[in-house]
């Protein structure tokens, strides 16, 4: 059953709370595990779960205006999807990092940075 329409304030409050919850969870994971691959895997999982919560919440509630719907897709959802893209990108870099001395690893990171600039 559809819930009542969301107000702009309710939409922002839910989204801000969800993002804060995600950031706290990611910070907690980072403090527990120093292995970047494990951290990034967990961060990706948490971010996907947050996106699913966002999707479920907004499917249950209808936004009041088209303007608010546009705001959701242009401002709110991208805050989470950008985190997911970033974590995925960093994860790919880490899993492809060569085994070797510091010089080889530094060269690899420089090459990866050039690709992204």
Question: What are the main properties of this structure?
Answer:
single chain; 117 residues; mainly alpha; 81% helix; elongated
Write the layout of secondary structure elements.
Elements: H1 8-32, H2 36-60, H3 66-95, H4 102-116
Structure write-up:
The structure is a single chain. The protein has 117 residues and is an all-alpha fold. It contains 4 helices and no strands. It has helices at residues 8-32, 36-60, 66-95, 102-116. Helix 1 packs parallel to helix 3 (66-95). The protein is elongated.
Counted up, domains total 1
Morphology call: elongated
For the report, how would you describe the main beta sheet? none
**In what range is the share of β-strand residues?**
under 5%
Radius of gyration: 18 Å
Quick overview of this protein structure:
With 117 residues, the chain is an all-alpha fold. It has helices at residues 8-32, 36-60, 66-95, 102-116. It contains 4 helices and no strands.
């Amino acid at each position: 059953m559809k819930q009542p329409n969301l107000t702009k304030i309710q939409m922002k409050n839910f989204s801000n709370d969800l993002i804060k919850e995600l950031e706290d969870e990611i910070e907690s994971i980072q403090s527990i595990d120093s292995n970047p691959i494990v951290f990034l895997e967990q961060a990706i999982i948490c971010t996907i779960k947050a996106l699913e919560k966002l999707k479920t919440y907004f499917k249950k509630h209808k936004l009041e205006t088209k303007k608010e719907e546009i705001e959701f897709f242009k401002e709110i959802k991208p805050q989470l999807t950008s985190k997911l893209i970033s974590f995925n990108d960093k994860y790919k870099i880490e899993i492809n990092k060569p085994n070797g001395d510091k010089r080889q690893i530094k060269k690899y990171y420089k090459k990866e940075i050039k690709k992204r600039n």
